[in-house]
Design a protein that fits this description.
The protein has 270 residues and is α/β, with parallel strands linked by helices. The protein contains eleven helices and eleven strands. It has two domains: 11-105, Ribosomal protein L30/S12 (60s Ribosomal Protein L30, Chain: A); 111-268, SPOUT methyltransferase, trefoil knot domain (Alpha/beta knot, 3-Layer(aba) Sandwich), CATH 3.40.1280.10. Helix 6 (132-145) packs parallel to helix 11.
């Protein structure tokens, strides 16, 4: 069994810390996944892990569960690396870490990889969403609702950002996800005859008044400005979320959740 890492300047520790930076992640094609729950989902969805750093002093699960999880990660090709608590706190990016952090290959985010097979796929498209927490929440909603894919258009928030992973609670790995330009995404949708449903306060129809049971892509836009003119011009349907107060919009992840679950409700009622 390899020795426990105790040095804060160990090269493996310095590299793990460096992976918080997008340039390093992209150059090495690696990413960080922290937390038992997120890793439990990731290890069932990803083809492999590169390394698993663990610190028994921080575990919130039983010794038996921890032993079984280390074995699961080892079967996914992860190098098992035990570290001391000070060392783990250096590589952790969460408050209140639970002693588990993995280095994993970045997932394939190419649009060509997406191939929904249902006759009425439900696609979620997020254009230029900036905040990692919002993007992660959209992924979490997509997983919970059984959406067929999420496409991030002209992304600002990096999907491999540890805070996206955290907010998605691992759904980044369980939902088919791609990044693409607006033009590439439009061509992909048109080729599959998937209708475009744009959310905008300028629409006249509430989202509950339209048919969302067919093959559709629900579009939400960046936090401050909403969807671009590109998508508003291309939309087959434009819908609004009625607002009874003084603000004119909801958080982008909340808007996505409302429309996605309206589509789910309508489909369950068929």
């Amino acid at each position: 069994m390899p020795p426990i890492i105790t040095s804060l300047t160990n090269p493996r520790i310095k590299h793990a810390v460096a992976l918080r930076d997008k340039k390093t992640r992209d150059a090495d094609r690696l990413m960080l996944i922290e937390g038992f729950d997120d890793l439990s989902l990731a290890v069932t969805c990803l083809p492999s892990l590169r390394a698993l750093f663990y610190c028994p002093a921080l575990f919130k699960i039983s010794d038996g569960e921890a032993r079984a999880f280390r074995q699961t990660c080892a079967k996914a090709d992860a190098e098992l690396i035990e570290v001391t608590e000070p060392v783990f706190r250096k590589i952790a990016y969460r408050d209140g870490p639970d002693g588990w952090l993995a280095v994993a290959p970045q997932p394939d985010l190419s649009l060509e990889r997406l191939n929904p097979t249902k006759p009425n796929p439900l696609i979620v498209i997020a254009e230029r969403v900036e905040k990692p927490g919002n993007l992660g929440a959209i992924l979490r909603t997509a997983d919970a609702a059984g959406a067929d894919a999420v496409i991030v258009c002209d992304p600002i928030a990096d999907l491999t950002n540890p805070n996206v992973v955290r907010a998605s609670i691992g759904a980044l790995f369980s939902v088919p996800v791609a990044t693409a330009s607006n033009a590439e995404t439009l061509a992909w949708l048109r080729a599959r005859r998937i209708a475009i449903v744009a959310t905008t306060p300028a629409a006249t129809q509430p989202f509950t008044a339209v048919d969302l049971t067919g093959p559709i892509a629900i579009l939400v836009g960046e936090e401050k400005y909403g969807l671009s003119r590109f998508w508003l011009d291309q939309a087959d349907l434009s819908v609004l979320i009625p607002m009874a107060g003084k603000v004119n919009s909801l958080n982008v992840s909340v808007s996505a959740a409302l429309l996605v679950y309206e589509a789910v409700k309508q489909r369950m009622g068929r």
